[in-house]
Amino acid sequence: MTMTRKNLTGRDIDAMTPAEKNALAQQYERTTPEQRRAAARLPTAAEVEAGKRLARRMPGRPRIGQGAKAVTVTVEIKLLQRADAYAKRHGIKRSEFFSQAISAALGRLG
Fold first, then answer.
1. Please, which pLDDT band fits residue 39 given cuts at 50, 70 and 90?
2. Is residue 1 part of a domain?
3. What are the CB-based long-range contacts (under 8 Å, 24+) for 2-11?
4. What's the number of domains the chain is made of?
5. How far apart are CA 50 and CA 8, in angstroms?
6. Does the first or last residue of the chain, that is N or C, have fewer Cβ atoms within 10 Å of its Cβ?
C-alpha cells in the first residue's frame, strides 16, 4: 500500500502493517502545521450539501414543549443529594424532577 495516496480512509489505515503505519506517521510528522494548512482545501459544493443532508437527519435531542434552556443553579449539597435520591426512586432524571418541582411550586403560588 502506498503512503503517497491523498485520501486514505480508516479502513486503508487499518489494513496497513505496523511498519506501514509507522512510516505514515513519520511522513506526517516531517511536515509542519503550516505545510498541512497549505495543503488543506475547502469542501466542494457536493461535500457541503452532503453535510447539510446529514445534519437534517440527525436533529439532536427531541424538543419538549417550547424547548429547553440550560441554567446554572446553586443547590445545597444535602438538598441536591435528597433530590437525586428522589429522582432515582421515581425513575426520572434530575432535570425532570426540578422541572416538576418548579411547576408544582408555581401552581401553589398562583
1. confident
2. no
3. 3/27
4. 2
5. 19
6. C
